[in-house]
Fold this protein.
Amino acid sequence: TTEDQWRPFNRSRVYMADLESTLHYSLRLELAAHPVIKGEALSALQRYISVLAKYFPGRPVVRNLLKSVDTWLKGQNDTELSYSSLRDALDNIAEVPDAALPEGVRWVGCQGSMPHFRRYPCGMWTLFHVLTVQAEEAAGKDPQEVLQAMRSYVHSFFGCRACATHFENMAKDSMSHVGTLSTAMLWLWSRHNHVNNRLAGALSEDPHFPKIQWPSPELCPSCHGVKKSGEHTWNQEELLTFLRSHFSSEHLLSDYLE
Ligand code: FAD
């Protein structure tokens, strides 16, 4: 049972095991529900793999695999792709040296107190926060690249269809205003808090991981301020500094990796 396998973890840190588990779940389970990928879904897949190949701050063997899948996908000229051919590329049947995507999931920071809590959706948010921070670290050229990849992936593939509709509505409202890499980090942070706010107290909330306006004052004291009127405010400069550090590649923990 899940209780037997509970992995102790630090709640104020980000774990590579969650990111790799998210990739496995997304690429080998969620996408497998689409035997043929074409049109809008195919371009969504291409954008997603492209940002992963550019920015996923993983172990060299995982990065090599993502780069080889990206190169393979960019070389496909057909208007449709079968999931089984993608799966062969993911499983590296061409035997590109030192390239692999670990099999299976090992949730750590995204563990839930019950099997239906947290896990993949938690991993998905974490993955994209990390990617927005990596895009800035790597001096990406297009401030919307990572956000648009997330938007189209969620729209075409994310299993929770109600989530996808909500996210698309938020994207339609304001994603086009994002003009810098740091604004992209803040956009995702603020939209995620918006979702936290909407879901606080809902049945989907893990009672051991209540939905809060994140980061808490304990996690980032300087991110929080108060106006003279007594109203809560966020200190955006401090928040950016915090996000850059919390989701940075050097700060990721490698406990529980295979
Ligand atoms: P999550 O919200 O998944 O967050 C994961 C971790 O990220 C947290 O533990 C925390 O460490 C950190 N974090 C929290 N807030 C922020 C923030 N603002 N910025 C940066 N990091 C943060 N569920 C629904 O029931 N209805 C929906 O409409 C819905 N829409 C979703 C849309 C998307 C795109 C995604 C990826 C998920 C959606 N979900 C939705 C799932 C839901 O948001 C949670 O992922 C799920 O309930 C698990 O919550 P969690 O406690 O693991 O924290």
User: Anything to note?
Assistant: The beta strands are 36-38, 80-82, 224-226, 232-234. The first strand starts at residue 36 and ends at 38. The pocket of flavin-adenine dinucleotide is lined by residues 110, 118, 121-122, 124-126, 129, 154, 160, 162-163, 166-167, 189, 192-193, 195-196, 199, 204, 206, 209, 214 (CB under 6 Å).
